[in-house]
Design goal:
The complex is a heterodimer. Chain A is of the alpha+beta class. Chain A is built from 6 helices and 11 strands. By secondary structure, chain B is an alpha/beta fold. In chain B, the strands form 4 sheets. A 5-stranded parallel β-sheet of chain B has the order 6-5-7-8-9, with helices on both faces. In chain B, strands 2-3-1-4 form a 4-stranded antiparallel β-sheet. In chain B, helix 3 links the parallel strand 5 and strand 6. Chain B starts with a strand and ends with a helix. Classes of the chains: A alpha+beta, B alpha/beta. The interface between A and B is medium-sized, with 22 and 27 residues.
Chain lengths: 194, 313
């Protein structure tokens, strides 16, 4: 099972640094992000004051499509969707209702959804996107970092795109070039460019 | 004169009224009674010489009597905010542990207690903390932050303070000026429950620190005793004011070291309380100040010392 490869916490105060190591490990575990985050680097200096967390995510799970969890059977009168995994059933129904209308979407039992023939083709249905786990994942990662940062550090700048993320927070106004001066060097040390 | 010592009785609900009657007959007081499903916990004061007798009576009922140093005290557990950063760990863990030692704890989440430079304490928070016997401040991990913010958080607080934080005790003692009454180092902001032996040892250390601080205050009180022992006043009020028994609060009247908090509306009951005759010809107003509490619309009773009133009930 993949897990966090690297967790580095740096701080001028040794006691605080050790405490933050434990906090970071606990938060990632609580929010079930250990499998999602590959590298996490934290720098915290209460004297400045500044809190920086930067890191790399693992490959994001791709978008979930109808074909991933249901069989699409086109019969003479009806299209029958045979659901194998209920996890994404609710968002799928929402999508189907929005596109084909509630009157055309029938669910005779838990694992079956029926549409009249002709409203959609097999390929169209199979490729229909139902959910994008990375959407909520990004929110979860930012939430974790907010949770991790000292509470008084309310001024913040955050970024998450593709596999890279950073979160800078302070009690005072952040300098405009903070990303170039402090965050970019951290990514360099992790062997990445921002 | 018999010395009353604070103890906790834990046992089953079956025939626990016999234990309560026994405590009453021995001249002790039950200040808090918790019933949880089949279990009952009585926080009480009992004569030192009679503890063995209570143990003997409780034995067939499966009850146990434990010394609980903090019974009859109300303690404020102050955390910088009620955000997820401080709750449920460590603030709730601390509050819960102090309760096990018999204290009545109130958690106080400050509105703007977070941050190094921006930390603040407003007048309501200050007054409410001052209504307690002691305040435990649960601060964080960095020495720098504790040093900078603590002066703001203690401004106007005149009750004893016990401070906890991640830096060790010596560091805390060095950075806090003027000194506070107690310190517990090595217990800062954490994100998991206090459960390892070394973490629980920290909580024990905290209880010890709190009871040491309160014992010092008890010694002062022994030199100039209060006009009435607060649990005794509590028993009298519960007997005389019928409405107290109708309140649904877990502790309708809360015993403190030097007074009581009565959870009745001040406007309606303050005058009745002042006029209440608690012994022959002595009104409560003669031996205590009846004040409005900053906590909701409750009443705070502060008992005056013997040296001031010349009355001992």
């Amino acid at each position: 099972m993949p897990s966090l490869k690297q967790l580095v916490v740096e701080s001028p105060e040794e006691v605080g640094r050790r405490a933050y190591e434990r906090i970071a490990a606990d938060v990632l575990q609580d929010l079930d992000l250990v499998k999602v985050i590959e590298h996490l680097y934290i720098y915290v200096d209460p004297k400045v004051p500044i809190f920086i967390a930067a890191g790399k995510l693992r490959h994001m799970p791709r978008a979930i499509r109808v074909g991933d969890f249901a069989n699409v059977n086109i019969g003479e009168k009806m299209i029958v969707l045979d659901i194998a995994d209920e996890t994404y059933l609710a968002p799928m129904l929402q999508k189907l209702w929005a596109r084909y209308g509630k009157e055309n979407v029938d669910q005779p039992d838990r694992f079956t959804v029926v549409l009249p023939v002709g409203v959609a083709g097999e390929e169209e249905l199979e490729l229909m996107m139902v959910a994008d786990p990375s959407e909520t994942l990004h929110m979860d990662v930012i939430y974790a970092l907010q949770y991790l940062a000292p509470e008084g550090f309310k001024v913040r700048r955050q970024y998450i795109k593709d596999e890279r993320f950073y979160y800078v927070a302070s009690e005072d106004t952040l300098p405009g070039d903070i990303v170039e001066t402090m965050v970019a060097p951290i990514f360099e040390r992790m062997g990445m460019t921002l | 004169m018999t010395t009353l010592v604070p103890v906790t009785y834990k046992g089953g609900i079956y025939r626990h009224d016999e234990v309560m009657d026994l405590i009453d007959d021995l001249g002790g007081y039950v200040v808090q009674k918790h019933v949880m499903a089949q279990d009952v916990v009585l926080q009480s004061f009992v004569p030192r010489d009679d503890i063995d007798l209570i143990r003997k009576v409780a034995r067939p009922l499966g009850g146990e009597v434990i010394e609980a140093p903090l019974v009859g005290t109300e303690i404020a557990v102050v955390s910088p905010s009620l955000e997820i950063h401080h709750l449920p760990h460590s603030a709730c863990d601390v509050a819960e542990y102090l309760r096990r030692a018999g204290a009545k704890t109130n958690m106080i989440g400050l509105a703007r207690g977070f941050g190094k430079r921006i930390a603040n304490l407003n007048d309501e928070e200050r007054d409410i903390i001052n209504e307690h016997d002691l305040a435990v401040y649960i601060l964080g991990n960095f020495e720098e932050c504790i040093e900078k913010k603590f002066p703001a958080l203690r401004r106007g607080i005149h009750v004893p303070i016990v401070l906890t934080g991640a830096p060790d005790r010596e560091t805390l003692e060095r950075i806090i000026d003027p000194p506070v009454e107690g310190y517990v180092g090595g217990a800062g902001r954490i994100m998991h429950r206090f459960k390892r032996p070394e973490e629980l040892a920290k909580l024990d250390e905290l209880v010890e620190e709190v009871s040491r601080t309160l014992d010092a205050r008890r010694d002062d009180l022994a030199r100039d005793p209060l006009s009435i022992f607060p649990p005794r006043l509590m028993a009298i009020l519960e007997e005389q004011i019928y409405e107290i028994t109708l309140l649904t609060h877990p502790t309708p009247a809360t015993a403190q070291m030097e007074g009581l908090r009565v959870k009745l509306p001040y406007d309606l009951y303050a005058d009745d309380l002042r006029a209440l005759e608690i012994a022959d010809g002595i009104a409560l107003g003669d031996i205590a100040d009846i004040l409005p509490s900053r906590m909701r619309n409750y009443i705070l009773i502060r008992i005056k010392p013997f040296s001031e009133t010349g009355i001992l009930v």
